[in-house]
Structures are given as structure tokens and as C-alpha cells.
Amino acid sequence: MGKFNFDAITNRKETDSIKWNMMDNIYGTNDLLPMWVADMDFQAPTEVTEALMSRVAHGVFGYAVPTNSLHQAVKNWVQNRYHWTVHENWFVLSSGVVTSIALTIRALTKENGKVLIQTPVYPPFYSMIEMNNREIVKNPLKYENGKYEIDFADFEEKLKTGVKLFILCNPHNPVGRVWTKEELDKMGSLCEQYGVQILSDEIHGDLVFKPHVHIPIASIKEGWAQNSVTCIAPSKTFNIPGIQSSVMIIPNNEMREKVMKEQQKVGSHGLNIFGNVALEAAYAHGEEWLEELLDYVKANADYVKQFLKDELPALEVLPLEGTYLLWINCRKLGFTDEQLKDRLINIGRLALEPGIKYGDGGEGFVRMNIGCPRETLLEGLQRLKKALQ
Length: 389
Fold this sequence. Notes:
389 residues
């Protein structure tokens, strides 16, 4: 047994938890086991909670600015985990990656401009493009032999249509792919060829399982660094999304100034005191916790794979290269998406994310959050079996 007890059950009901207390808004009832939204059920690293408690004990909560030590913690983390040397003047702090996506879309494209995404993909990619009056252009991922690949011929054809911004998801949510250097090379080269800027959502970049390696696309070539906005955050990594802190890494001065101007337009002034404290503590002291977390989540994924093989062989769980979100193919069961949802809710009493929420290609899939204690996982699998056997 490791240093950290990921088997511990923490009661999250009645704690203002979206995951545990807002299912009635999504599923019609809170009487479900929640394995849906990307929010783990593990307590954050002790160093994070201790840093927050120390700051609370001070008792004065005036306006705050990020410290030099915060910037150094981010620099060290990116260097040590991704082997990418970054500079603190490249950093733009933001309350969250979705906020960063919206700001970047507004800063780097004009109304009715074309933005490329790879479907199925995280729903805010769609909504942030549409709500800012831009046009969605889709490059559907190819699902072949139980794995997703990029359709590069289609990718290039779509870039030729006048796309101005490409939103990359790496690791990809929901399909769990960690894009290889060769795949990133092809995408980066094509974007360079057609003058398309890159917004890379790398919020799950720390949650990658060996032998896979997370590579920021901006770290591959200087030209791509100068053409990219890279979004990282401690939120998914250390289970602190409710504290709302993230970082945009923007090496290009002109691009960075445009994004910062959009922040000013909406009155955004970076992180609050606790966002600063949590971000620094997580990146400065959380690596040991993360390494044990990765082992635990990988064991959870292996358990699900074996369970489905033994108990629900018609279901296919895709290989988990990154994230703690399993993408499960239920198409062989022959249910419609509405029937699948109904059985999970009313028979299994289980809350999973319906694949159709992620757009084209998500039909017949569900997404399961396995960032939870083993006891919760086992209960969830029994409920899944009850619903779909």
C-alpha cells in the first residue's frame, strides 16, 4: 500500500457538489451513483489543504497578486513533466480552461470566423465557439478497430476552407487518446502551412499512463510555440476544479496581448487568493501524490476492462491512454441513446455521461468517471451490469 489512501470514502453529499447534488437537473433525480462529471472523489494532496488553511488562518483577504514562487512552481512543473522550458512572462492566469478557450476564441478570431474541432469532443468546445458567434468546422476522428485516429486528409481539407483557429484536445476528452509526436507533427505542420493558430487544451496532460507520454504541441517547434496558446491547470490533476485556477502559456507577445485585452474587456483580473495558493502548492508539492494516483486510476481501468470482458462482453472499453474518463462502446447492445440513458437511470440508478453529448461520433457510447475509490467503482460496475445485461 502506498503513502496515500485512495480507498478512503469521503461523503460529498450536501457539500454544494455539482457531481453529487445536481444530478436532478441533468438526470431527473439525485438518487443515482454519480460517475459522470470530470471531478474525482479523492481528497486533494495534504500540502494543498495545509497551504489553504494557513492562508485562511491569516484572516486578511485583500487583493492579491501571483508571487514569483508561483511562477517558478509552474515553470518547474512544465519543465520536469513535459521537458518544455517556458518563461514566466508567457503566463496568463485564468479562472479556468473553458474561460481561457472563450477568451482565446474572441482574441484570435473575428465574428463568423471558422474554428476547427475534432469530434466527438468536450461539449464547451462547441458552446464557446457558437456563443461567441463563430462557425464550427468539424474534423471527425476515425474509429477503427477499437481505436480513434485522426483523419488527416479531412483535417487538411477543412483547414483549406478558411479556418483561423484549431482547438486541440490533448489528451483527448472523451476518447482517452494521448496524441503521439508523429500525430502532433502532422497537425502542427498543416496548421503552419495554412496559417491556422492553435489553441491546445492540455488540462489532462498530467493524467497520462505509461508508455504514453504527454507532449505539448508548442514544445515541438519554436514556430508552433509562437503560433499557440497552451492551457494547463492543476484542477483535474489534483482534484481542485472548484478552486478555479489555470494558466495559459502564450510565447507570442502579440497573441498574449490580444488575450489579455479580452480579459480586460470582461473585467477579469486573474485568480483569487485561494486560487493562487492552491495552484502553487499543487505544482510545488503534489508530484508524489500524482504518481500514486496514476497507479490507482490505472488499476481501476484494468479492473473495469476485466469486469466488462467477464460480465458484459458486448461492451467495449477503449484503451485509456490518458484522463480518468473511460469511453465505453455500447453499440452492440442495439439500444438507442434514449433507451441507453433510460436503462442506466431507471434500472441501474447510475449517472454516466451519454456519448451523444460529445457530438458527432458519440452515438452509442457512454463516458464513465473512474476517478473514485475502488468500493465506488465496484458498486458502479454492478449497477452498470444490472442496467445493461
